[in-house]
Amino acid sequence: MKILCVLYDDPKGGMPKSYPVSSLPKLDKYPDGMKLPTPSTIDFKPGELLGCVSGELGLRKFLESKGHKLVVTSDKDAKGCKADKELTDADVVISQPFWPYYLTKERIKSAKNLKMAITAGIGSDHVDLQAALDNKVDVVEVTYCNSRSVAEHIVMMILSLVRDYHNQHSIVNEGGWNIADAVRRSYDVEGMHVGTVAAGRIGLDALRKMKPFDVHLHYFDRHKLPETVEKELNLTFHDSVESLVKVCDVVTINCPLHPETENLFDEKLINKMKKGAYIVNTARGKICNREAIAKALKSGQLSGYAGDVWFPQPAPNDHIWRTMPNHGMTPHTSGTSLSAQARYAAGVREILECFFEKKPIRDQYLIVKDGQLAGMGAHSYSKGSATGGSEEAAKYKKK
Ligand code: NAD
Questions:
Q1: Tens of pLDDT, residues 112-125
Q2: Which residues does residue 195 pair with via DSSP β-bridges, in sequence order?
Q3: Most distant pair of Cα atoms in the chain: their distance
Q4: What's the CA gap between 199 and 195, in Å, rounded?
Q5: Are residues 103 and 93 in contact, defined by beta-carbon separation less than 8 angstroms?
Q6: What is the architecture, at CATH level 2, of domain 2-145+336-395?
Q7: What is the CA radius of gyration of the chain?
Q8: Residue nearest (by alpha carbon) to ligand 1 atom 42
Q9: Sheet holding 277-281, edge to edge
Q10: Rounded CA gap, 203 and 209, in Å?
Q11: For residues 55 and 42, is the Cβ–Cβ distance under 8 A?
Q12: 3-state secondary structure of 54
């Protein structure tokens, strides 16, 4: 079989010769008891770069020893790109949300042998799910592999926005010491109302991680959490996103991108938020309206916006979120720490082993199976496509 793997570029100076930390902590299981990935073995050292082209998700030895062909590229957007050429006879495509190969309807149609799209990470919105359903292409992701990595990033961003870390850090880098400039937008989070739109694996973990800061916690989700969890965290449930945003000082967005959530945070909803609230969005860029966010930061309706997700990716060099005031954006990194890479590389191998041996893939990993939303897909997504406009990613020029 032919496996096409689309990964981000290597570091500019080549693969690292050494890493800051000598070994990763060993985790036994995820918080709800779910097992970490269980491939038969791995051919990489956890803690090394795996998500870039030379890292190859640690898959080459395994795939070639079984007689499969592995093609790895980062060239994924412009017309005539290598990924499009290789896709036409690929059986499996692997892509990461950080550097998504947008599997649009046209691309899925061009891939006559395609049986499965694997997301090395979580969030399969870069696949036109409607086209996958219609063409019976299975879609799977490595559920839980980086949920807690993202929750850590959310806490970091909430604190850094509210305390105005980015401004203070740049004052130091510029050789300055003006304390008044450094603190004129700086607050404590203690006592604030913090809410999550969606309380799945990431949203719930972010709530748990924020609890020790003595904040009031809120959530909105299409599935209600068990009462025991609501009590333990003293959560206020909202039956609509409008109800949540009206009372929260900080809103974090943690639902998948699908037709129900695309453009959810438009100008109308942002104007219903508390004046001067903060948004941390590590879910997907397209859940927030690009222009409305920039406008709200300029007017002061929002005091800050942070996260790591953009649309499309890579974000064009002139994407307005790169230059809007009071933002704490990073490129899409929260779910691809070296720790997370080890888990999703192992998870991809587990999925491929099941696929080749015709064993069932874990239900928790399934988004689309046999032309139906299945497993996590049925729980967290809706039918349709959210890939429209992704061709704009070709505008990005490497720096
Ligand atoms: P999850 O499936 O455990 O949780 C998703 C939650 O969203 C579920 O509780 C679901 O009920 C809820 N939901 C879905 N549609 C909704 C709607 N219309 N309104 C309200 N709630 C809705 O997934 P997770 O592990 O928590 O990940 C969530 C998302 O975060 C992913 O789909 C992905 O887009 C994003 N993510 C980003 C990164 C990153 O690196 N930035 C990494 C992992 C995941």
A1: 999 999 999 999 99
A2: 218, 251
A3: 65
A4: 10
A5: yes
A6: 3-Layer(aba) Sandwich (3.40)
A7: 21
A8: 335
A9: 235-237, 216-220, 193-197, 250-253, 277-281, 302-307, 327-329
A10: 10
A11: no
A12: coil
At 145-166, the pLDDT tens digits run 999 999 999 999 999 999 999 9
| Residue 251 · residue 283 · CB < 8 Å | no
132-137 CB contacts, 8 Å cutoff, 24+ apart: 132/103, 132/108, 132/368, 133/368, 133/371, 133/372, 133/373, 133/383, 134/371, 135/108, 135/109, 136/370, 136/371, 137/108, 137/111, 137/368
Report the nearest-CA residue for atom 38 of ligand 1.
335
pLDDT at 181 over 90: yes
**Please, where are the H alpha helices in the chain?**
60-65, 82-87, 105-110, 129-134, 147-163, 165-173, 179-183, 201-210, 227-233, 241-247, 267-272, 290-299, 338-356, 375-380
Q: Which of 32, 125, 143, 202 to mutate to test the pocket of ligand 1 (most atoms within 8 A of CB)?
A: 202
Rounded Cα distance between 238 and 218, Å, is 7
254 Cα to the center of ligand 1, angstroms: 5
Q: Check residue 9 and report its DSSP letter.
A: P
For residue 96, the cross-strand partners are: 99
Task: State which H helix or E strand residue 307 sits in.
Answer: strand 302-307
Burial class (CB in 10 A: 0-12, 13-18, 19+), 157: buried
Ligand 1 lined by 306 (C-beta under 6 Å) = no
CATH topology of domain 147-322: Rossmann fold (3.40.50)
For residue range 202-212, list pLDDT tens digits in order.
999 999 999 99
Q: And the tokens for 224?
A: 């209600």
Domain span(s) for CATH 3.40.50.720 in the chain: 2-145+336-395, 147-322
What average pLDDT does the segment 6-24 reach?
97
Backbone angles phi, psi at 90, to 5 degrees: -80, 145
**Overall pTM surpassing 0.90 (yes/no):** yes
Which ligand 1 atom sits nearest the alpha carbon of residue 376?
2
Contact 367, 124 (CB under 8 A): yes
Query: 380 vs 67, 123, 221, 284, 368, CA distance in Å?
Result: 36, 10, 10, 14, 12
C-beta atoms surrounding 316 within 10 Å: 16
> Which residue, among 260, 279, 230, has the nearest Cα to 380 in the 3D structure?
260
- Sorted by sequence, the CB contacts under 8 Å of residue 105 that are 6+ apart come out as 128, 130, 131, 385, 387
